[in-house]
Amino acid sequence: MPSGGPGERATDDGGPAVRCFLAGNPGPLTFDGTRSYVVGERLAAVIDPGPLLDRHLAALAAAVEPAGEVVVLVTHGHGDHAAGAGDLARRIGAEVWGPGAGRVVGDGQEFPTDCGPLVAVATPGHSRRHFCYHLPGQCAVFTGDVVLGEGDTTWVGEYRGGVADYLASLDRLDALAPRILYPGHGEPLRDGAEGVARFRRHRLTRIDQVRRAVARTGSTDARALARHVYGPLPPDLFGMAVSGVEGILDYLSGSGYAYP
User: Fold this and answer.
1) Are 90 and 107 in contact (CB under 8 A)?
2) Which of 51, 57, 96, 122 has the most CB atoms in a 10 Å sphere around its CB?
3) Average model confidence (pLDDT) for the chain?
């Protein structure tokens, strides 16, 4: 079966399966598409049902049809992760928990599965309300958009304070000592510690690039700094780069950095 295809077994560590289902929404920000995960078989959870795509939601519904109990969990409210949650819940008669899509999740809240409890871990930064789901029994974390399966960066520019939150969230993930990370986009990361470290290094490097650009140019104009740091970008990506620079400027102002 092609990598990431519907029903792909995402782990072969023994015990009830963790399965990955790839939504048909590839793009520059979603890579090959959103990855939805089914954890457990008879007592199951669906993590991030993804966009409102009938074929994808039907595949998820079929995957949990044998289960006696199912819960739908959402990492954050962005449409490529959460838009299909309500539709899937109606199809399978399940509750939805998570930011922007259902009942409010609390940090440390547990959701039972055949694989052991899934523990909600508050990890803001990419969005103001973002949760990863920790599966301690398999030393695994479902990371949403905090850590991705390709590259070394994710968007952090949605709100003031997001950069500081994001760095703290990486620290929280690191403290869990995950063996494997299951991201919302891209392949699983089989060395969880290295994956977290890679994304931290990139963020700290980008902060330093903006700091040096401010010192070099004497400007705190986010658009000018984005052009200086990133170079030419398509309009949609440039807008995200500008918001990312704004987030870094906010972070630098809170860290005691003295602008020229």
Assistant:
1) no
2) 57
3) 92
